[in-house]
Amino acid sequence: MIRKLVPVLLLFLGLGLGAGAGIFLRPAPSEAVAHDGGDAGPGASSGASSGGGTEAEGHGAADDHGDGASGGDGHYTPETGPTETVRLPNQFVVPVLHDGRVEALVVIGLALEMRTGHAFDLATDEPRLRAALLQLLFDHANIGGFDGLFTSGEVLLSLRRALVTTARGEVGPDVQDVLITELLRQES
pLDDT tens-digit profile of 68-94? Predict the structure, then answer.
C-alpha cells in the first residue's frame, strides 16, 4: 500500500515545489516592461502588435525624447500626428539555431509608420534599413527572443522598441513606429 502512495506523494511534492518556485522567481511587472535587452531604457519606442489594438498597444503622447514611451502599466504610446505607412516589400526570414542547427524559421513582415512628408525612399534607403533590421532580428533570435512564448506582450514590446531605435538610426527621426504586420514560426 505504501509503495503505491510514495509516487503519488512525490508527484504532489514536485508540483508544489514547482509552483512555489515559479511564483518566487516570477519577475516583477515593472521589470518585465522595462527590460528591452539594451540600455535604451523606457524612452525607446515599441509595443505589441496583433491586428487591431490590444492591451499592450495604446496610442497617446510621446515622451520628452520624441521617440515614444512605455508607461509603467506596459502600454505602448507612440508619437501622435499625421502618418503614412510604408510597407517593406519583402518579409524577413530569420533562422532559430540550437546547438548549431536550424530548429525553426521565423518569417516576419514589417511596415514603417512615417511622418507625413517624410524623405524615405524605398529604392535608395530600403537596402541599408533592411540590413540593419535583419541584423537586429538575428541578434534577437540568438538570445532566444523567438523561443517559448515569443508573441507575449513584453517580448514584442521589447522587439518593437529595438526595431524603432534601429530604424531611426538608419532612416532618421521621421520613423514614428515599426509595425509587425506578419509573424510566423515554422519548425524545421
Answer: 444 445 555 566 678 889 999 999 999
